[in-house]
Amino acid sequence: MRSAFRHILLTAGAVAVAATAAFAQSADTYPNAPIKLVLPLGAGGATDNLARVSSGPVETKFGQPIVIENRPGAGGSLASAVVAQSEPNGQTLLFANFATHAVTPTLFTNLSYDPVKDFKPVTLIASQPHFVLVNPDLGINTLAELIDYAKKNPGKLNFASAGVGSPLHLAAEYFKIKAGVDLVHVPYKSSAPALLDLIAGRVQVFFDNVSTALPHVQAGKLKALAITSSKRSPLAPEIPTVAEAGLQDFETYGWWGVAAPAKTPPAVIAKLNAAYVEALKSPEVSSKLASQGYDVIASTPEEFEAYIGKEITKWAPVIKAANLSPTN
Amino acid sequence: MAGGSICGFLEMIELLNHLVFGLAVAVSPTNVLLCLAGCFLGTLIGVLPGIGSIATISMLLPLTYGLDPVGALIMLAGIYYGAQYGGSTASILVNVPGEATSIITAIDGHQMARQGRAGVALGISAIGSFIAGTISTVFIAALAIPLTRVALEFGPADYFSLLLMGVLASALLSRGAVSKSVAMILLGMLLATVGMDLETAAPRLTLGYPQLMEQIPFAVLAMGAFGLAELGRSLETPENRDVISRQIGGLLPSLSDLKQSAAPILRGTAIGGFLGVLPGNGALLGPVASYGVEKHLAKEPQRFGKGAIEGVAGPESANNAAAQTSFIPLLTLGVPANAVMALMLGAMTMNGIVAGPQVIERSPEFFWGMIASMWIGNLMLLVINLPMIGIWVKLLKVPFRILMPSIVVFCAIGAYSMRNEPFDVALAGFFAVGGYLLIKLGFEPTPLLLGFVIGDMMEEKLRQALIMSRGSLAIFIEQPISAGLLALTLVLLSVLLLPRVRRKRDEVIVE
Questions:
Q1: Are B176 and B184 in contact (CB under 8 A)?
Q2: What is the CATH number of the domain that holds A62?
Q3: By CB distance 3.0 to 4.6 Å, which of A189, A216, A292, B195 could disulfide with A221?
Q4: With a threshold of 0.90, does the pTM exceed it?
Q5: CB-CB: which of B57, B200, B357 is closest to A323?
Q6: Do B333 and A165 touch (CB under 8 A)?
Q7: pLDDT in tens, B310-322
Q8: Which chain B residues in 30-69 lie under 8 Å from chain A, judged by CB atoms?
């Protein structure tokens, strides 16, 4: 009996030592094969480009290709499931975003994986704020005027969204709560038809990415009342922040980062984090991303983890207030 | 009067200047090569069932980062219209529409192929596409800016009415009983509702599969219900498939074929060119409308669906004209009209061209270079494709025991590679079985696919319009464009319901 117990202990000890050695070895030699980066969106879009631009120098540093696999669909949960259920050795990573880590935990209650616990954040790559856009014919020139107008005419203004549960949609729903106004939601599947109807004046308010909206603002087709970040954008320094325009504690961003399966060894996470941070801080990558409207962040894993927690808490009540169905 | 004509003359000169400027950009050796590479690649990829232009452009997008932006976009545009053309080839030869816009071509094109006139069908589709491409290039150069207004004037209500007309036209199109095609359209619309609700994100008809949350991918449905189901039909009748491989017939359209096709090509160009400007999937309605018009104008409408050359010439021209004019909203407004244009917009941004309303002033070499390259691309497609017809037609001589498994394998690859999703391959198999059963019951898959594509847009536009009007149906009559389209729809409906009127009219014409 005693010897059997001892035997078990010994075996367990040996396994533990072997496992540690394997981990240590894998962190030293990591990566010894191409890395798969699973994207929750289709090829060719802005997110795809962001993933490629930020992973380029990492590939060079590691001497291993980073293969991007596009698994769009179901609010990013198809991509997340693939990564959550893959070997936790750093060879399969998720390009996490607002959908996979801020919305899915609240909106989807019946997933085959845990959107938070099954992942270990690596780094928050970048974020991009939104413009509060209105049609210029509305005659509204400031954010305060918009809030004032909407309060005097509840339910009169339409706001467009691009993709239900997307940052562009939830930012406007959050605005309704924070500013205490009633705007009617007109849903669109993507940003382009929403912009057209905004330019034509059929919808009056739209929260859109700075990079998409900027050319229309510069051409005078649309008016940007404010930017939803804490700082003004270097691309459009004349547009005030929401706080400067009079609406406090209201910030919205689309954001993107890298996450690994939860049991990935800490040494591998550290190595990945260091490589991505170095890539993002290189002048070439950071200037390229800045010119496309991104704020480059390059956080530590802990900062990213804390950020995800804050985002989930921040958006859960907004998702509930927007009457989105928390099923499937 | 005189002042007007001088003004017009000056405008002409300016237009010519712009086109010459654009041609100078487009005929630089690099750009010509890139255009050729794009057209060639697009044609090849378009021929493969299931791998459409969206997949190709998105896969090749990262490769263009190193190129000069104008050249990169010229190449991607070449892939786009090359794939449109190649998609028609697949429609005609193997009855698998690679793109939503070539569904219509499959109707008469594939029948022509079965009758040994595959070469003629491919030839007329190349010639029609070239003529349509040439006319719409000039059209874009001259009218791109005023046409932008059309795109802006069309609101959700107007769009809904246009789509309603499209649905009715689809009911008219296919051969066989109207009641059966209506049933298929409705089934297609039902399939289009699968996925997340537009407004509440609630999963609809997903049967618990997260893979169905987005939507059934068009290509999966098309490959299953069209191509694979068709293979099933060929399998059970050995004589049928031999017909294709035995007789080939003339490779190029004869003079009488050309004469018969001239008017349909011009009408198709006009219809497609106009509808292509509309955002959304206006490009799809072009071939549908063109086919409807040709069938209506034909002296013997019963020939349609049995290999009428007008049923290939008109829709193919409309298809190509629409492919070209769908660049207008992107080039003048910076707003993409469809998924491919959204990728082009992405390519512009990534290559450092600021897309938007000011692109003409800021990057004139890009704007006019693109337009001129469209014409060069069309010329190249004609040059590539006319000699290649012989090769494509030889494809039909490949023994069925080799051709059939190859088509199945390509369909499986195509279904998988869209989202790297094994589920989609199984889904294509499911639709193949379903499509085969429908064929056995005498239902045509064409209206099913049209109902699927149109129904998806219709729901979106209906809901947007009704939200904007706060629930009042009056919006469809109050908006002038919508009201006009509804009136036209009523006229169409009366034609549909009163076939006797039409028969009488035909008699009058004969007399």
A1: no
A2: 3.40.190.150
A3: A216
A4: no
A5: B200
A6: no
A7: 999 999 999 889 8
A8: 55, 57-59, 61-62
